[in-house]
Amino acid sequence: MPVEQSSAPSPPTLTICGLAEIAGHGGRAVTHALSLLDPGTPEPDGFAAYGPHHRVTLSFHDAITPAEGTTLPTRDDVAAILAFGRDIAAPAGGDAQHLLVHCHMGISRSTAAMAMLLAQAEPALDEDAVLARIATERPQAWPNSRMIGFADELLGRQGRFTAALGRLYARRLAEAPEIAAFMHANGRSQEISLAEAGARDAAPGAG
User: Fold this and answer.
1) Distance from the first to the final alpha carbon of the chain
2) Per-residue DSSP letter, 154
């Protein structure tokens, strides 16, 4: 009797967006959604257009250093994001899943979250490849470095994730140098330093 061959699980569709874009994805059969919101922000109305899906909401600011009135992302927040991701894989032969991650603008918290979820789901993928995939999905990506730092630790990436993030930052600054002034003005100078290190690391002959 022939042995029935089971098909491998289909990889999930990945969508990154901001608050204003949520409703526009209502017809795309989203199965899982992760909302990353500023504390006190009401639940987005855009999800009313969606069919049945599983959604988790976490609340913290898009920041990397302490400041009055600021709720920083924590190691526990990142652990919760990774726990959410472990529930997403479709069963063999089942329907493909569609994961949507959003924050307010779809630039920093959401791209960091999607990067760590992809790194967890595909452990053989190196860190530069993970971040290149995120940049392809969301060209304006500037993942939150504090979140990536926690993910680096929790996923056992041994600093490689943060180093690759610096190289992504360096590429983004080469494309849009004005980002540096914004980051300096908003308490994220550490990320510009990381970009400078990334540029040196990526320079011909480095290492």
Assistant:
1) 57
2) H
Query: Domain spans of the chain?
Result: 13-159
Extract the tokens encoding 116.
Answer: 């760590």
- CATH of segment(s) 13-159: 3.90.190.10
Cβ contact 29:50 at 8 Å: no
Is 58 in a helix, a strand, or coil? strand
Query: What's the whole-model pTM score?
Result: 0.92
List pLDDT tens digits, range 88-131: 865 555 677 999 999 999 999 999 999 999 999 999 999 999 99
Q: For the chain, what's the residue count?
A: 207
Give the integer Cα–Cα distance in Å for 127 and 3.
38
What type of residue sits at position 84? F
117 and 78 in contact (C-beta within 8 Å)?
no
DSSP-H helix ranges across the chain: 75-85, 109-121, 127-137, 145-154, 160-175, 179-185, 189-202
Output b/e per residue, 123-159; b: 16+ Cβ within 10 A.
eeeebbebbbbbbebbebbbbbbbbbbbbbeebebee
Which positions ≥6 away from 137 have C-beta within 8 Å? 14, 15, 16, 114
